[in-house]
Amino acid sequence: MSKKPVRVAVTGAAGQIGYALLFRIASGEMLGKDQPVILQLLELPIEKAQEALRGVMMELEDCAFPLLAGMEAHSDPMTAFKDTDYALLVGARPRGPGMERADLLAANAQIFTAQGKALNAVASRDVKVLVVGNPANTNAYIAMKSAPDLKPGNFTAMLRLDHNRAASQIAAKTGKPVSAIKKLAVWGNHSPTMYADYRFATIDGASVKETINDQVWNQDVFLPTVGKRGAAIIAARGVSSAASAANAAIDHMRDWALGTNGEWVTMGVPSNGEYGIPKDVMFGFPVTCANGEYKIVEGLPIDEFSQACIDKTLAELIGERDGVQHLL
Ligand code: NAD
Ligand code: LMR
């Protein structure tokens, strides 16, 4: 017997990440090749955005995806999130000319407060929420705080792009395939302060740290390359990463829903005090996933260098949190 369709809401559906994401969700790459989906697509209530969304939906229709059991266009989160099982919050206010970080935080606080409230009111009680729109960790924190009737653990932020970027850099450095790398972790904020940590990682079973054996490369090449990769792509392409961001979103949701078979992945999740991170801060942690739940990998030793990196990215997140607290 075929499975019952699940509802997947995507915001910013007519944007560039949306365009790289929706076709893959509809083809079964996110939730499995046996899982029908209904797409509930949210765009701004302005004609240009809604018209662009209509075009994307025409293309989705033209793919004749067997798993696409329905799709809807919305301009209001209260209808877009109705009964949704998965919500990918991609749409966000980009930083405009002359806009300070505080202005960006405030503009996004409005969006994610409204979307958190709507999820609280109408989404499935087990909804899995992934925030992609930047600043992703703080937007996820805002949405979580605006949804008091949902469990904090329903809300996550996307650190998977940083994780995948780190894996690719290690693969290139060691000349091994990315599939050989296990136990990689990225701590903290999706920003240049993130701390990609390969101390526990193995490659074909051997220690990555011992194989590379070069702390100067770690500090001066690896961490800046991964941390500033988003800016490097904007400089090269003129627009921000889209296909790789959509790919990371698919990876994040697939692993959360279908499990990681004991492998570590990175997710931005609300802290319960693990590693001294204050409760509810939306922080990148190594996790494993099983039965639709994630679990933070606990008990890892944190050395002095790592602690300093974690403190730095945490300080940035606390600053962002404090900057929006009065708006919640
Ligand atoms: P984009 O500008 O191409 O598309 C964004 C879309 O969102 C637009 O179509 C816009 O109309 C829509 N939108 C804006 N506000 C909305 C709202 N309140 N409700 C519904 N729709 C809304 O941008 P993009 O390239 O698709 O990127 C989207 C976001 O993802 C940006 O914030 C970007 O910085 C972020 N991003 C995050 C990561 C990550 O790793 N977390 C990586 C890349 C990009
Ligand atoms: C990325 O990491 O590629 C993006 O978050 C960059 C950005 O500012 O949109």
Description:
By secondary structure, the chain is α/β, with parallel strands linked by helices. The chain has 2 domains: 6-156, Rossmann fold (3-Layer(aba) Sandwich); 159-327, Lactate dehydrogenase/glycoside hydrolase, family 4, C-terminal (L-2-Hydroxyisocaproate Dehydrogenase, Chain A, domain 2), CATH 3.90.110.10. 43% of the residues lie in helices and 19% in strands. The chain contains 11 helices and 14 strands. The strands form 4 sheets. Strands 3-2-1-4-5-6 form a 6-stranded parallel beta sheet, sandwiched between helices. Strands 7-10-11 form a 3-stranded antiparallel beta sheet. A hairpin with a 7-residue loop joins strand 8 (185-187) and strand 9 (195-197). Helix 6 packs across helix 8. The longest helix is centred in the middle third of the chain and has 22 residues, at 101-122. It is globular and about 55 Å long. The mean pLDDT is 96. The structure holds nicotinamide-adenine-dinucleotide and (2S)-2-hydroxybutanedioic acid (LMR). Nicotinamide-adenine-dinucleotide binds at residues 11-12, 14-18, 42-44, 49, 90-94, 111, 132-134, 136, 158, 161, 190, 240-242, 245.
